């Protein structure tokens, strides 16, 4: 996938944000809908799929392996090959910037008697894959010519996988999902123990497609997930709700700019994803959840947010999996709160699309906001109350979409405009972000 030319973009102090937001589809659910559609027999109809580069990387890899995936107006149709029915790709599988795409597809490849070479962009090629390869190798996946645990990697799957019982050493929904996907192809029961619960979209969607998945709550908050293998998946209707990780940017913008009020429609409010919103409520944010409902097995609501003062809080480490992608934008928001915000248990941020802990801290430095890293915690001194957030700096995004969006949002209330060095990477998760923000009243555009 070609890497685009960088475009420096600036966010200026904004008039109040107002209006109703139609969100793009949830990224995690979109990947899973395509993958399970491709592993099902018959046709799957998907509405609300996120049309971003990351999700299109999953679609292309599945097409390269024989699934039919095509747009149908606003929706998508997937014609699956059945569990174990994908075929040898004729080219390298290119996952671009997407950790979710490559790690979930490793689980799929693991269950097929085929070879595939997996590649990605510079950011993805520096991210650890061992966390997925270790359990998959126990199941029978082979890494050919193994030298490192990073892309590019050549894998050889097997139609004769062995089910395992595996306790996750890191709280990762990607690792859990890769093992679950491999487990669909293995005989007997594949059992995964997660000491800290992570997003459970794979569990919900596999059931929606007809797989036999059991989930047991464990003492201490963990979960045990059992996948009954040699599953039969049947094509179905999938409705992808709006992405709460994308909604976080609009909600944060509204909380930063005085006088703002937004209604963000159709937000996924699965409790494994709402840690950011719980934190905002603890900070004193005016948030209302309206019209709560179910969309094909996932809870959804409309979120109304009004600007108001925020206070600093301590975000406990056990909340991290439920808001893992929202820390950069929470850090931007914490700059506007009164007092200190301390976010704990952020070790996983070091292995995201960038070292997000460092990129966030450096971005705050550029904005003139005082912060420090304390072990695995990030501590931000809010300027709320009497002082204004200075702004004025240029933030290095390091090929990380969430760093780019977070510091543009910070610039909506700062004294001086904030610049980010590259916004093209935003298309990996949120195409149309700048236009959508500007339609709500923000001032974001190419730097003069
Ligand atoms: C995701 C899981 C999380 C998250 C990523 C999407 C998923 O990653 O950061 O954006 O869809 O399973 P980890 O599994 O590495 O925590």
What is the helix content?
25-40%
CATH superfamily of the largest domain: Enolpyruvate transferase domain
What's the shape? globular
- Structural class assignment: alpha/beta
Radius of gyration, in angstroms, nearest whole number:
21 Å
Q: What topology, given as strand order, has the largest sheet?
A: 22-23-1-24
From the coordinates shown, what is the CATH architecture of the largest domain? Answer: Alpha-beta prism
Could you describe the 3D structure shown?
This protein has helices at 27-39, 53-64, 99-110, 130-139, 173-184, 201-208, 244-256, 275-283, 327-334, 356-366, 401-410, 433-440; strands spanning 9-12, 18-22, 43-47, 68-72, 75-79, 93-94, 115-119, 142-144, 153-156, 165-167, 189-194, 213-217, 223-228, 237-239, 261-268, 286-295, 298-306, 314-315, 340-343, 371-374, 377-381, 394-395, 418-420, 443-446. It is α/β, with parallel strands linked by helices and 448 residues long. It has two domains: 9-25 and 241-446, Enolpyruvate transferase domain (UDP-n-acetylglucosamine1-carboxyvinyl-transferase, Chain), CATH 3.65.10.10; 27-239, Enolpyruvate transferase domain (UDP-n-acetylglucosamine1-carboxyvinyl-transferase, Chain, Alpha-beta prism). The protein has a four-stranded mixed beta sheet. Strands 2-15-17-16 form a four-stranded mixed beta sheet. β16 and β17 (298-306) form a beta hairpin. The chain starts with 8 loop residues before the first strand and ends with a strand. Bound molecules: shikimate-3-phosphate (S3P). Shikimate-3-phosphate binds at residues 28, 100, 172-174, 177, 199, 324-325, 348. Residues 28, 100, 172-174, 177, 199, 324-325, 348 line the site of shikimate-3-phosphate.
């Amino acid at each position: 996938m070609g890497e685009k030319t960088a475009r420096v973009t600036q966010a200026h102090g904004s008039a109040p944000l107002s209006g109703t937001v139609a969100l793009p589809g949830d990224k995690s659910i979109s990947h899973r809908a395509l993958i399970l559609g491709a592993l099902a027999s018959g046709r799957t109809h998907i509405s609300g799929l996120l049309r971003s580069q990351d999700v299109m990387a999953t679609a292309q890899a599945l097409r390269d392996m024989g699934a039919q995936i095509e747009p149908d107006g606003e929706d998508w149709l997937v014609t699956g090959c059945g569990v174990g029915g994908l075929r040898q790709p004729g080219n390298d599988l290119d996952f671009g910037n997407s950790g979710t795409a490559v790690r979930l597809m490793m689980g799929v490849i693991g269950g097929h008697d085929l070879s595939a070479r997996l590649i990605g962009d510079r950011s993805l090629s520096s991210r650890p894959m061992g966390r997925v390869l270790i359990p998959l190798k126990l199941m029978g996946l082979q890494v050919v010519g193994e030298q490192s645990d990073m892309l590019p990697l050549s894998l050889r799957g097997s139609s004769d996988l062995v089910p395992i019982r595996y306790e996750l050493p890191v709280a990762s929904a990607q690792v859990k999902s890769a093992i679950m996907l491999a487990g669909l192809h293995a005989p007997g029961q594949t059992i995964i123990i997660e000491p800290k619960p992570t997003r459970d979209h794979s569990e919900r969607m596999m059931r929606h497609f007809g797989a036999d998945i059991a989930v047991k709550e464990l003492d201490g908050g963990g979960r045990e997930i059992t996948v009954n293998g040699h599953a039969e998946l049947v094509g179905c209707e999938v409705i992808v709700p709006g992405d709460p990780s994308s909604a976080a940017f609009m909600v944060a913008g509204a909380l930063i700019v005085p006088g703002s009020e937004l209604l963000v429609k159709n937000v996924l409010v699965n409790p494994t994803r709402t840690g950011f919103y719980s934190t905002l409520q603890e900070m004193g944010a005016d948030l209302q959840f309206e019209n709560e409902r179910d969309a094909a097995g996932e809870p959804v609501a409309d979120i109304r947010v009004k600007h108001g003062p925020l206070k600093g809080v301590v975000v406990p480490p056990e909340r991290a999996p439920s808001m893992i992608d929202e820390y950069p934008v929470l850090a931007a928001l914490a700059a506007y709160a009164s007092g200190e915000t301390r976010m704990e248990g952020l070790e996983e941020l070091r292995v995201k699309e960038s070292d997000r802990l460092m990129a966030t801290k450096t971005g705050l430095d550029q904005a003139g906001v005082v912060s420090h890293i304390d072990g695995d915690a990030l501590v931000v001194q809010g300027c709320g109350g009497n002082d204004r957030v200075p702004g004025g700096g240029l933030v290095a995004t390091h090929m990380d979409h969430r760093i780019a969006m977070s510091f543009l949002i910070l610039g909506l209330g700062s004294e001086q405009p904030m610049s980010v060095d590259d916004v093209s990477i935003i298309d990996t998760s949120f195409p149309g972000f700048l236009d959508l923000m500007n339609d709500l009243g923000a001032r974001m555009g190419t730097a003069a």
